[in-house]
Design goal:
It is a single chain. It is built from six helices and 28 strands. It is mainly beta. The chain folds into two domains: about 180 residues, no CATH class; about 260 residues, no CATH class. The strands form eight sheets. The protein has a five-stranded antiparallel sheet with strand order 4-3-6-9-10, with no helix packed on it. It has a five-stranded antiparallel sheet with strand order 7-8-11-15-14. A five-stranded antiparallel sheet has the order 20-19-18-22-23. Strand 22 and strand 23 form a beta hairpin. Helix 3 runs antiparallel to helix 4. The radius of gyration is 28 Å and the shape is elongated. The N terminus is likely disordered. The structure holds calcium ion (CA) (2 copies). The site of one calcium ion has 8 residues, from helix 4. One calcium ion binds next to strand 27 and helix 3.
Length: about 450
């Protein structure tokens, strides 16, 4: 038997099947039925294949809707529900996605794995870049990207993945581009003197390394970001950008275990964080979709985190960390950023020479120790004002961080001498101690 959908049919006859559209009676085909699809035609809704065995890939709604099972005990039949955009196919939620919905079900079988290839139309891509597409599964209302393994073909319009467990294949599936743009603006107190831009002395001196410097503890980021030459004269230094998506959605739960993607890039002297080309906003793959918290880290400043940033269908998150209101503050810690001198903008606290996520007397000790040995100009963690040399200015800066009240640029002693200040003396003095990052560890 042959069902033909057009004048140039493609045929297969690898087993019995039952086809049908949601809400319409299925069509049962006899064993060894032969289907045929003409180019561009596909079956909307459910296609069920009976007499299922492990082994060869089998076609469902169209030639690139393929399922293969292996291992365990194979199911006795397999059903694919595929709804394209023209039939209202819209994956659950309002995240970035190809507008095509996939559901899978089977009868029987245990412990087998499934390889799947899912087709799409160019008209369903929306803002997704075709060459980046990966498969995603909806787990407890959160979309999880399966960045690997992935196979894709932009000419034949399909994306595939392999080795899905029976639990995974039972989820709702879709296709989406995992590469998100992070529009971030941040300032470093140490690289700021009077503004309006930060110093680029490390860059002009040729001291910025060509490979990202966050590959050691406590950052322990194994990324291979590197450049042949520093691509922009306005680059201040490397920074590390993360996106965190905690299950609870609460900032206090946005610990490092909730990182869904991260990358090292460059900070320009105007505060813009850019990618390795030195000009475009940094972007990287994320493996979960949802409301997120953006984190910017610098190797000798206190890391800073955004407030909750809404999930979106356009594939970008934005945060201006130079505004106090845009930075998450742990209520039990001091302000997360500091007012920059001669400016209304805020910057990341300077002085964490020991990379301890806090600025305290240990940092002052470390900087003084570095001064005491002859150290050539270069790229040093103890150079907290990014001047390339280590001297009393670095000590002063670390001490300022410790002595500053809250986020004010005024030192503690001056503020407490005001007496009638609206800031209670006790609260003020409690903030003149060590500074600690508000970013959950
Ligand atoms: Ca420290
Ligand atoms: Ca210095």
């Amino acid at each position: 038997m042959t069902i033909s959908f057009g004048p140039v049919p493609r045929k297969y006859s690898d087993g019995p099947a039952m086809i049908g559209v949601d809400h319409f009676p299925s069509v049962r085909l006899p064993v060894a039925a032969t289907f045929a699809f003409n180019a561009g035609k596909e079956i909307v809704g459910k296609v069920r294949r009976t007499g299922w065995t492990n082994g060869a890939a089998r076609v469902f709604n169209q030639p690139n809707m393929l399922i293969t099972t292996a291992g365990g005990t194979n199911p006795t039949d397999f059903t694919v529900t595929m709804i394209p955009q023209t039939a209202g196919g819209d994956p659950t939620g309002a995240e970035r996605e190809v507008k095509r919905k996939f559901l899978f079900a089977q009868t029987g079988g245990t412990g087998f794995t499934t390889d799947v290839r899912m087709p799409y139309l160019d008209a369903e891509l929306n803002t997704n870049t075709e060459g980046n597409l990966v498969t995603w599964q909806n787990v407890s209302s959160v979309w999880n990207g399966r960045l690997t393994p992935v196979t894709r073909d932009g000419a034949s319009n399909y994306v595939g993945t392999t080795g899905l467990t029976t639990t995974e294949i039972a989820n709702e599936w879709k296709l989406a581009d995992p590469k998100y743009t992070m529009n971030a603006t941040a300032m470093l107190r140490g690289a700021w003197t009077a503004g309006p831009t930060m110093t680029t002395l490390l860059n002009s001196g040729g001291y910025i390394p060509l490979s990202q410097p966050y590959n050691t503890a406590p950052f322990s980021y194994a990324g291979t970001e590197s450049v042949g030459t520093i691509p922009n004269a306005n680059i201040v230094d490397w920074v590390l950008v993360e996106l965190r998506i905690p299950v609870s959605g609460l900032p206090a739960d946005a610990t490092s275990s909730t990182i869904v993607g991260r990358k090292a890039g460059f900070l320009l002297n105007n505060g813009t964080v850019v990618d390795l080309d030195g000009t475009t906003p940094i972007s990287f793959d994320i493996n979960k979709q949802g409301a997120g918290f953006m984190v910017v880290k610098h190797r000798n400043h206190l890391a800073t985190m955004s407030n909750s940033l809404p999930s979106n269908a356009i594939g970008s998150y934005s945060n201006n960390f130079t505004a106090l209101a845009n930075v998450y503050k742990n209520p039990s810690l001091s302000d997360p950023v500091v007012l920059l001198p001669s400016s209304a903008s805020y910057g990341m606290w300077a002085g964490d020479a020991t990379k301890s996520n806090a600025v305290n007397s240990s940092d002052v000790t470390a900087i003084k120790a570095a001064i005491s040995v002859i150290t050539p100009a270069g790229y040093h963690f103890t150079d907290v004002n990014l001047s390339s040399t280590i001297n009393s200015s670095d000590v002063t800066l670390a001490k300022q961080t410790i002595s500053t009240i809250g986020s004010s640029s005024a030192p503690a002693k001056a503020a407490s001498s005001l007496g009638s200040s609206s800031t209670p003396g006790k609260a003020a003095s409690s903030q003149t101690q060590d500074k600690k990052s508000s970013v959950p560890e």
